[in-house]
Amino acid sequence: MTTLSSGFARARRWLRDHPLAFDATLAFCTLVAMICGSFTAPGDGHGPPAFGARTPEPFSVFLMTLAAAALVLRRRRPMQVLAVTAALAAFEYVLMDPPAPVVMSTVIALYTVASRTDRPTTWRVGLLTMGGLTAAAMVFGATPWYSQENFGVFAWTGLASAAGDAVRSRRAFVDAIRERAERAERTREEEARRRVAEERLRIARDLHDVVAHHIALVNVQAGVAAHVMDKRPDQAKEALAHVRDASRSALNELRVTVGLLRQQGDPEAPTEPAPGLAVLGELVATFRNAGLPVEVACADRDRLPAAVDLAAYRVIQEALTNVRKHAGTGARAEVSVVRVGATAEVTVLDNGRGSTGPGTGPHAGAGPAGAGPGDDGPAGGGHGLVGMRERVSALGGTLSAGPRYGGGFRVHAILPVEARTGEPERPGTAGGTGLRR
Question: Which residues have CB under 8 Å from 116's CB, separation 6+?
Answer without folding.
Answer: 75, 78, 164, 168
